[in-house]
Task: inverse folding
């Protein structure tokens, strides 16, 4: 019996529910471990004029204070370029930036010590918004252009042309476990790191860089993470690095664990993004031309912003064919946290721009938005089924999913019901929307699309399974166990899934880009195939058979297809293999085939395949307050042949709710001084169970095997987040019902305040004559 | 009260007696659990807003019997657990997984697992009360699952549980909270049982701070890391823990937890029911008290607008005697009250009678936040309108939170409404008055303009819903 495809609970579920699953900071502390606490800057932009740490030593329990002078190697943790100073000595780049770190016998001692450190600043005016950055010509990285055809000419030729813009907020990851790293020196110049990191290899490389030692002296292990979502892809590095410096300086084990408000203040978030567009279209709603500028808020340093921006630019089209299109992108530099990877990695921001444009066209023409969406889908073959970056969508499942979710949701009937409801209710209105998702799967950076595994079989037949991916709740380890059990033909309980560690599988990619199962699964399978190929002759010999290739490995038994009743146990073969001096450990390796990208022309085949989905959402909006209630959600999503439907459904549901939070309630608020005011769950609101409707129906697309992917499955981590665009569009649909206008701008996130201003705008314009549509009421900035 | 301070507290954690000494009484229960190796309980925020640190505290419910109550261990000062029974996620698997644990495993209710211990303990507490539903986990944030698998787990254990060791334990444990006098790490914690002792302690220790459920003060311990030399807990004080209902009025002791008020007064005051529904989350309502919500005098406290609209009256006590005061006269400025040094809030009395000449009362409350559930209000409003036979307004109370430095009534508009008919036209005129009644601030929760619009719109919403 195969275990792939079963609804297996998370491999750590029993540990989770009983409190026995250990996270980085839950481990038994080694003797003499010190704790670190940062001294943070009270300005978003300033020159440092003076640092005096001496008073900290007056606090009992303060061991030492770390400053730039204590960095043995490079004082920089930048991941793409070297622009991320670890201990700033000259300038402060964002409010709350750590200037020095105090090391104490206890966290309390370190904190009290940090209170005593004196730093003098000369404040400078900060740049805090995308538009201010554009005005100040404050950019970083390289501008990018992705184009097909000639958008300028096509715009001139279009029946209609509209210009507009949409700006969206960033998003805090709000993983429940804050950043944590432990560094344990062995006294011989080697360091064992336990870090809550999605990218152990990069954490290893950065630590080696700041310590000025070779990578092989640093081992980074990730037990598991209490959530990641991209927020521990690069963001774990600086905290692991300062702990490592403390371990070097004191010779003692050292730990950093951020408190929640520190985590929110210090770490990067989803990029806020401004999209400015010019769209040309026909009377029937066919989009014929699009010219878009995307400005992503990179924050104070570059971090991963270039690939984030690229993914935004490659997803503006979402599921729509646009013949002539030009997308330009730039990364602005602001005095805020350095924005980073977050589930979707720029894709969601690009797609929100795309859906904004579709809705704009639909309302202008007086067509239902879903009709305009349908009319613009990628379809057919050749150009109409090829993206603006030149990748043909060889396996287009959009129309199929679309019709299925519409049927599941009774979309047509509910459109009529809602129209009746809205006619008979003046103060509350309902809205319905359906939106598609097409999301490219693979790292844009081609070299990241490789993975390794290491499987160790012991003579009792028990097995250790190592692979390069990290577990952050997404069920990767569970799926890898299923893959290994299926590929090796043994029961899952024979395996121990090992913590991800750079001394087991080296040079790994981040567990990111939804690629964990695709890449590591193939590597695990590869290792299993190697071991099976070694064990089969041993088994054949034991069974006096002469055709090892005919042997079947299944459920811990090995037998010949020809004589299925004559079988032997897996462990018997393992024991014999040892006696025959056959190696019982193997590495596995995988690289994604057939992908390439030309950065100079922004053309290529960057994605191995696309993941698809569609969602229907219905909301009710209160016209007095702007509050809304999500009433019903129906989803059809394509996960290929699911490796684990329980896990995949959890990813879809969780991704949707996280996306809904981003688009409706999670508001990052920086004040005029650049201080993050939403730095705790009291002020930054992620969805609770009460925001999730009772009627929430998820269906996995059936008979959906994806050729060339592990057991026909598909990536599922990121794509479902974007299904939540249906909530934003349903809210807009309800707002539109408060009047009769051809344009319904809506700020993002669509908080009650944003919704109420949008309603007031609709009402005001509906009451007035035509021609005032451009004089919009917009939400006053906070 | 014992004159000699004890240097050791005892409590029962997962059935095991623990002796707590040489740590400050303001050390949170969460810190103590983790430092003592019980790391199953997690810190997600340290602010009482995420529920990851939820544990079950055996405590008296509204019926006087012991219940398991879900509480945020990050907000509980260790002094408060003296003599109490606590269960954590490590302590509920009795040979095999507890039914709520098994259900969460089965449905995929855990992904990263970090919030899971908190959910487990919220479900555990609700399991023994037969109240397993969405509301029992509304104070638990999960960033992975979207809650649907957790809801499925809850539905598996929603039916009444069998008799088991945990239910037996409730019946076998004493209900009374004894008095405590503890000194740890140069800080003192007193838990007297008599009001006279409270007043005496306040005389002896002018620097003492009163604490009850610690859902507000707990932030000082947990988040702001402030130290308090002397804490006086009101949790066990008999005179502050009562509810008295007559046909004329309801009187609620200041130390009564909100969850008791929720249970016992349901249906008596619709506006109070509504606001309690939106008040924080279960873990907080199990600990927060009426007196605490009034005494902190926050301009965005949830209950003051409701109580102002119902003309609540406070009873205050000090060493020199008792006095009563309309709640409207209690709030003096931003987080300032008429409470004098050495004085405590004893109770809050709400009349159940409607105005003379009135034939019906319309009363409701509203709370608007960025998120419906468990949020701090942008604007909260409570309205109370008494109408005579001609549908004329004979009594009007419009009270708001989030619009001024204190919870406040729109007295000018209330007076203007008197004698007017309860009609759409009256409401429209009242709205124009309401728009200028207050000058709210812009803050991270909302703009002044939005607040002004809400002040007026909420009154119209009230009219539309209660014509």
Result:
């Amino acid at each position: 019996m195969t275990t792939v495809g079963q609804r297996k609970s998370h491999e750590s579920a029993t540990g989770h529910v009983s409190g026995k699953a250990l996270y980085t900071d839950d481990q038994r502390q080694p003797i003499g471990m010190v704790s670190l606490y940062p001294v943070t800057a009270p300005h978003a932009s300033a020159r440092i004029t003076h640092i005096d740490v001496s008073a900290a030593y007056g606090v009992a329990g303060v061991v030492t204070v770390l400053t730039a002078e204590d960095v043995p190697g490079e004082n920089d943790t930048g991941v793409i370029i070297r622009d991320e100073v670890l201990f700033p000595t000259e300038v402060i780049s964002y409010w709350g930036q750590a200037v020095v770190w105090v090391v104490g016998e206890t966290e309390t001692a370190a904190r009290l010590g940090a209170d005593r450190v004196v730093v003098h600043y000369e404040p400078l005016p900060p740049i805090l918004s995308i538009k201010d950055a554009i005005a100040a010509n404050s950019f970083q990285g390289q501008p990018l252009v992705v184009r097909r055809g000639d958008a300028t000419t096509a715009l001139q030729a279009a029946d209609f042309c509209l210009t507009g813009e949409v700006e969206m907020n960033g998003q805090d990851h709000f993983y429940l476990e804050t950043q944590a790293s432990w560094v344990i020196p062995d006294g011989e110049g080697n360091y064992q790191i336990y870090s809550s990191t999605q990218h152990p290899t990069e954490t290893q490389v950065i630590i080696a860089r700041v310590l000025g030692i070779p990578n092989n002296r640093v081992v980074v292990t990730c037990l598991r993470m209490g959530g990641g979502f991209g927020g521990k892809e690069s963001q774990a590095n600086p905290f692991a690095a300062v702990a490592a410096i403390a371990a070097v300086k004191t010779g003692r084990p050292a730990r950093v664990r951020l408190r929640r408000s520190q985590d929110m203040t210090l770490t990067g978030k989803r990029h806020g993004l401004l999209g400015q567009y010019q769209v040309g279209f026909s009377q029937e709603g066919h989009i014929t031309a699009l010219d878009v500028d995307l400005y992503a808020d990179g924050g104070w340093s570059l971090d991963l912003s270039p690939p984030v921006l690229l993914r935004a630019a490659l997803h503006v089209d979402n599921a729509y064919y646009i013949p002539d299109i030009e997308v330009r992108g730039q990364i602005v530099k602001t005095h805020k946290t350095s924005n980073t990877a977050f589930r979707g990695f720029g894709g969601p921001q690009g797609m929100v721009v795309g859906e904004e444009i579709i809705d704009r066209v639909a309302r202008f023409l007086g067509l239902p938005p879903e009709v305009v969406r349908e009319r613009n889908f990628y379809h057919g073959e050749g150009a109409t089924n090829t993206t603006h970056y030149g990748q043909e969508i060889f396996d287009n499942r959009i129309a199929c999913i679309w019709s299925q979710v519409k049927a599941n949701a009774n979309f047509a009937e509910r459109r009529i019901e809602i129209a009746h409801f809205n006619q008979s209710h003046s103060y509350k209105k309902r809205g319905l929307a359906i939106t598609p998702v097409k999301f490219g799967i693979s790292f844009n950076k081609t070299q990241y699309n490789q993975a390794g595994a290491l499987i160790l079989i012991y003579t009792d037949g028990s097995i250790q399974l190592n692979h390069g991916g990290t577990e952050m709740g997404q069920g990767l380890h569970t799926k890898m166990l299923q893959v290994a059990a299926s590929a090796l033909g043994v029961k899952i309980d024979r395996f121990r899934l090992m913590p991800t560690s750079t001394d087991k599988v080296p040079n790994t990619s981040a567990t990111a880009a939804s690629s964990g199962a695709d890449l590591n699964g193939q590597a695990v399978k590869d290792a299993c195939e190697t071991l099976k190929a070694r064990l089969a002759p041993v088994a054949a010999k034991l069974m006096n058979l002469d055709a090892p290739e005919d042997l079947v490995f299944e459920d811990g038994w090995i037998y010949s297809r020809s004589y299925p009743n004559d079988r032997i146990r897996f462990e018997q073969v393992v024991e014999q293999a040892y006696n025959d001096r056959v190696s019982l450990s193997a590495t596995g390796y995988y690289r994604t085939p057939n992908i390439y990208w030309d950065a100079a022309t922004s053309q290529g085949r960057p994605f191995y395949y696309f993941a698809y989905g569609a969602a229907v959402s219905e909301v009710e909006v209160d016209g007095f307050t702007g509050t809304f209630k999500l009433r019903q959600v129906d989803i059809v999503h394509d996960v290929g042949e699911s490796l684990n439907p329980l896990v995949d459904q959890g990813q879809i549901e969780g991704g949707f709710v996280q996306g809904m939070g981003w688009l409706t309630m999670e508001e990052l608020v920086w004040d005029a001084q650049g201080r993050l005011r939403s730095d705790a769950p009291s002020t930054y609101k992620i969805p609770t169970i009460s925001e999730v409707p009772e009627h929430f129906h998820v269906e996995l697309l059936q008979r959906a095997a994806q050729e060339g992917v592990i057991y026909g499955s598909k990536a599922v981590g990121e794509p479902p987040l974007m299904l939540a665009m249906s909530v934003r569009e349903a809210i807009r649909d309800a707002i539109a019902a408060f009047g009769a206008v051809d344009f319904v701008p809506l700020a993002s996130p669509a908080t009650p305040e944003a919704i109420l201003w949008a309603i007031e705008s609709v009402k005001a314009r509906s009451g007035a004559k035509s021609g005032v549509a451009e004089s919009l009421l917009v939400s006053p900035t906070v | 009260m014992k004159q000699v301070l004890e240097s050791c507290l005892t409590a029962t954690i997962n059935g095991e007696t623990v002796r707590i000494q040489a740590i400050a009484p303001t050390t949170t229960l969460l810190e103590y659990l983790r430092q003592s190796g019980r790391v199953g309980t997690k810190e997600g925020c340290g602010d009482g807003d995420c529920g990851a640190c939820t544990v079950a505290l055996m405590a008296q419910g509204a019926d006087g019997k012991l219940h398991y109550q879900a509480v945020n261990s990050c907000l509980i000062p260790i002094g408060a657990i003296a003599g109490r029974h606590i269960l954590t996620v490590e302590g509920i698997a009795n040979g095999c997984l507890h039914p709520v644990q098994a259900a969460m495993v089965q449905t995929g209710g855990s992904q990263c697992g970090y919030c899971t211990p908190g959910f487990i303990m919220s479900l555990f507490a609700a399991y023994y009360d037969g109240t397993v539903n969405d509301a029992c986990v509304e104070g638990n944030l999960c960033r992975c699952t979207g809650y649907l698998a957790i809801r499925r787990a809850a539905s598996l254990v929603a039916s009444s549980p069998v008799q088991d060791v945990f239910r037996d334990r409730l019946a076998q444990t004493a209900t009374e909270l004894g008095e405590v006098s503890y000194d740890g790490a140069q800080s003192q914690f007193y838990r007297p049982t008599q009001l006279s002792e409270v007043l005496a302690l306040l005389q002896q220790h002018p620097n003492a701070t009163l604490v009850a459920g610690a859902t507000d003060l707990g932030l000082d311990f947990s988040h702001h890391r402030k130290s308090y030399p002397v804490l006086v807990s009101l949790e066990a004080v008999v005179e502050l823990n009562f509810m008295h209902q007559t046909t004329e009025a309801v009187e609620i002791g200041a130390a009564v937890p909100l969850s008791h008020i929720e249970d016992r007064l349901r249906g008596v005051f619709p506006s109070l029911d509504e606001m309690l529904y939106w008040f924080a989350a279960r873990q907080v309502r199990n600990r927060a008290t009426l007196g605490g919500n009034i005494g902190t005098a926050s301009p965005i406290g949830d209950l003051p607008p409701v109580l102002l609209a119902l003309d609540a009256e406070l009873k205050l006590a000090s060493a020199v005697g008792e006095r009563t005061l309309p709640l409207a006269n209690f709030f003096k400025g931003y987080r300032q009250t008429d409470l004098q040094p050495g004085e405590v809030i004893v109770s809050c009395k709400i009349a159940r009678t409607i105005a003379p000449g009135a034939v019906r009362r319309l009363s409701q409350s509203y709370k608007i936040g960025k998120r419906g559930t468990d949020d701090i209000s942008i604007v909260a409003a409570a309205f109370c309108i008494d109408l005579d036979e001609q549908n004329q307004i004979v009594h009007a109370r419009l009270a708001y939170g989030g619009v001024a430095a204190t919870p406040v009534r729109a007295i000018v508009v209330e007076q203007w409404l008197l004698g007017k008919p309860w009609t759409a036209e009256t409401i429209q005129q009242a709205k124009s008055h309401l728009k200028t009644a207050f000058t709210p601030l812009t803050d991270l929760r909302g703009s002044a303009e939005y607040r002004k619009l809400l002040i007026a719109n909420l009154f119209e919403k009230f009219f539309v819903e209660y014509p």
